[in-house]
Every structure is written in C-alpha cells, then in structure tokens.
Amino acid sequence: MEDKKFFDIIPPERVKEPSGEPEKKAESKPVRKPEKRPAPIKPSVPIPPVAVGEEETDSSDLIPRKISWPRAKVLTFSTALIFLISMGGLAYLKLPIVTIDVWLKTENLTFTIPAEVSKEVKSVNLERGLLPGKVVSEEQFLSQEFSSMGKAVREERAEGIIRIFNDYSTTSQSLVATTRFVSSEGKLFRLVERVMVPGQTLEKGKLVPGTVDALVRADAPGQDYNIGTSSFSIPGFAGTPKYTSFYAKSFSAMKGGFKGETAIVSAEDLEKAGQTTRAKITEKINNILKNRMLPGLLLVEQDVPLNILEQGPTAKVGEAVKNFNYQVRARKETILLSEDDLKVLAQASLVSRLSEDQRFLPESLKINPALVSLEAADEKGQVSLQISVKVYNNLESEALKKQLSGKSIQEVQRSFQDLSQVSQAKIKIFPSFFKNLPRDLDKIELKISFE
Question: Residue 196 half-sphere exposure, CB side, CA atoms within 13 Å?
Fold first, then answer.
C-alpha cells in the first residue's frame, strides 16, 4: 500500500454580527454543510404587516375571488336582453306617434237683420226681433283756433286824434271834412268829419285858445304815416293871418298805416275750420258717452246724426287777421245695447242660414249696429244689425282618424286631397322609418286650424 499523507483542514471563520458582548475566542467546531432552504413564495397580493400582539390572519382571505369569464358574459347578456325587451315593449305601446295638422277652408258670410229697441223690453225676443236698450244723449261746446291761409295785398291808412287850436279870435271856426293837416314831418292827414273849433275865451284876464279834439286819417296808405306825436298846420290858411293862429297837436302816435301782402280769412279757411271743429266735437261727445258705458255694453255710432245747435267763425271772409276761432255747440242722441243680447239675436239668425254640415267660428262673429230711427222722448228706436262671420264645412275628427288608421302616408295624403273642405294637411310621424299610420287611434293626434 502506498503511504498516505494527511493534512489538517481548518474551516474559514464565520463573520459574526456585531453585538454588545465582548468577542469570545473562536472555538473549533466540526464542519457542517450549509442547509438548502426553499425560496420564499411571493404573494400576488401584498400582505399587510402584522402588528405585535395581533394574531396573524390567513393571507388567502385577503385575495379577491375572480368571477369566471363565462359567468360574467351570461350576466351582461341577460341585462342587455332585459333592457332591449323593455324598450321594445315601450316602443310597441307608444310608437309610432303621428301628428296631422289640417287647415280647413273658410268663407265670409255677411247679412243684415232689423231690430227694434225699447226701454220697455226686458229680454231678447227672437220671434219679433226686439232688444232691450237705452237712449243716451250728450251736449257739448267747442271753440278751436285756426290760422288764416288766404293772401291779399292790403292798403291801410294811419289814423289818430289831434287837438285843434283857435288862437285867432273869439269867434268859432268851422272846418269841413277832409280839411288838410300837415305834420312837422311833412305827412298829410285829413279830417274824417266836420268840426267846429271854439273861439278864444278869457281866463284870469288872458285870452285862452279854444280847442277841440278830432279824428284825422292819412292822405295815403303805408307804414310811413305811422308817426309819433307831432305838430300840424292847416295848408288851407296859408297866406292869411289864420295860418299861424290855427294849428293842431297830437299827443299819441298815428296807427294802422300799412301797404303790402297780408293774411286774410278765405272761404276755404272757414269751410275747413267748420269740418274740423264738427269732427272734433263729435269725437268728444262719443268719448264722453263711451266713458259712461259699463263693460258688455255697445254704443250705436253708425249713422247717428250730430244735432248742431249753433256754429260759426269769429271772422268773416276777406278779413285781414292772422288767426280766427270757429265755435260749435252740438248734441248727439243714440242707443246703448248689450253685447250679449246682440250675440243671442245674431247667432239665432245665423244658425238658420247654415246648412247641416256648416259651422261658424264664434270668435269671428262681428256685429255692427246702425241707427235707423230714434224717438228720444219715448226712448225707443230701430237699428239695423250688420253681421259678418267665418263659416266652414265640419270635419269629424274621430271618424277621420278611424278612416285613416293603418293606411300608408301616401294614402293619407291622397285622402286629404279628396276632401273639398281641406285647404292643406301636414303629416308628421315619429320615428320617420314608419310608413303606415298606427291602428291605435290614441297614437294619432289631429290638429284642426282655419285659414
């Protein structure tokens, strides 16, 4: 046998974790092979740390359980199916929805009926055409100012008062009309009437001239003769001692002299003024009468005459004034009626004029009463009722809906074209892919309008 050699095998020292205890001398230990430990299993869901003193829980309880794919698919499909079935049922009950707008032709019907009105009648008498009513009256005065629109060339002479002095003798002096007086400005005026100028008188030992006031007028028209206060001489005494002893003075200005175009009252002015004033007073009286009315009453206005008590202008044709007034005093008498009574009488007469298929639109009924005669003292009269209303041929909605149910839209349109009383029709169906009207009449809405 071969000789075998043996060597001491010393294992490597372990690395010790630091600790608070003093290091001890390493002791020799037998060599051990390191044990293989299984690798730790990492959970798919984080496991929360366990606090000290708490019991550990099974980590498998914290992992949510997943629903298998086939089961989720069945649940989704079932929900969708239930929803579709519900919506389908609702659609079956409600759809389609049809709205048909129909416009019917109308025509105007007008006629006139007579009626008697009296305060003694208490209610409408259809057979005799009697209406209860009341006679009302109102009197007013109106004065309006108007401008003169006529034009004319006007010539006016200035006038004024002068005081004539006789400082010639104690004998009176007669001066004839048209005696000339010349102002200090050289303007010639003439006496309008003959005057007697008194002679001198003795006052306190002195002779005082006799005086007289007289009206003089300018010898020619024009504004130049509108002079102020002035002194006057008598040209007829020129060259005689009387020339300086007879004289005159004015103490106020001469007025009225004019020459040129001016406004005058024309015949057309008076005619227009009369028409305007009469129209205004008529309106004024009507408004007063209307204000007296209670709701539901109607005032007869048509053909009611205006009783003119007095009228006239404050100026005559050709008078040169810029403005003038026209005055009117007038009275109006008419009848007051009840609107309800008028409708009762009018509708009764209207129904008798309609055919079996005709109807009328109540809101289109218009009644215009006109006065025929009036006895104000007895409070009675006669009126003529002018009536107008729109009529149409009736269309039975339910019967028409029943006739159109289940038909196609084209058939429905042709049906309306065949109806003479229909002007036009519009059909709306929802949803639009439906081509036929439903058989359920509650799903069809028929709206009727009029031209």
Answer: 5
